[in-house]
Specification:
alpha/beta; Rossmann fold; two-stranded antiparallel ribbon; 6 helices; about 20% strand; globular
Length: about 190
């Protein structure tokens, strides 16, 4: 039997990203974490399922190693009792984890995805969710990314990368929504 609510998938809201910013990496969507906190509140209020995803680095200098401060979740996105935490070691929350098994066992068909970063783990998880047949909804204002230098040496702004990622995913892999859209869907029930 299908689950009556979508599941919130919170991807990699970890302190490593604060450390990146502290050393000068520039990001977009400065209010994304506050919006994630609001989504968590809405899902908890409605007793809708929540899955927390953590990235565990595997390279010796990764800021996501469990022994380093960057591995810890940001306080605003901390899990509560009974909310599963799924640890991944690659970009997709579906590879090497039991996320798909848990979702299918619970009858969950719709996923609301947020977190970091838009063009890495959020994008890869969203693409796979769509490919696996889930009704994926990526929350555009509850994810963020950083400026990057491309292979041609040109700098691409976080805003450009974010917008292009959303464009690439829209319609084929996911529906792009806002946090207000998600909150309104609960109010409409």
């Amino acid at each position: 039997m299908p689950h009556p609510f979508p599941a919130l998938i919170v991807v990699d809201v970890q302190r490593a990203f604060d450390e990146w910013e502290a050393v000068g990496k520039r990001r977009n969507n400065p209010d994304a974490v506050a919006r994630i906190a609001n989504l968590l509140k809405a899902f908890r209020t409605n007793r809708a399922p929540i899955f927390h995803i953590r990235h565990e680095g595997t390279k010796p200098n990764s800021t996501f190693l469990p022994s380093r401060s960057g591995y810890a979740v940001k306080d605003e996105a901390r899990e509560e009792a009974g909310e599963p935490v799924i640890v991944k070691r690659v970009n997709s929350a579906f590879i090497g984890t039991d996320l798909e098994t848990r979702l299918r066992a619970a009858g969950i068909t719709t996923l609301v995805i947020c977190g970091a970063t838009t063009n890495h783990c959020v994008e890869t998880t969203t693409r796979m969710a769509g490919n696996l047949g889930f009704d994926a909804r990526l929350v555009r204002d509850a994810t963020w990314t950083f400026d990057r230098v491309g292979p041609d040496g040109d700098t691409h702004s976080a805003e450009e990368i974010h917008a292009m990622t959303l464009s690439n995913l829209n319609g084929e892999f996911a529906r792009i929504v806002t946090s207000d859209d998600v909150n309104a869907s609960f109010a409409a029930r």
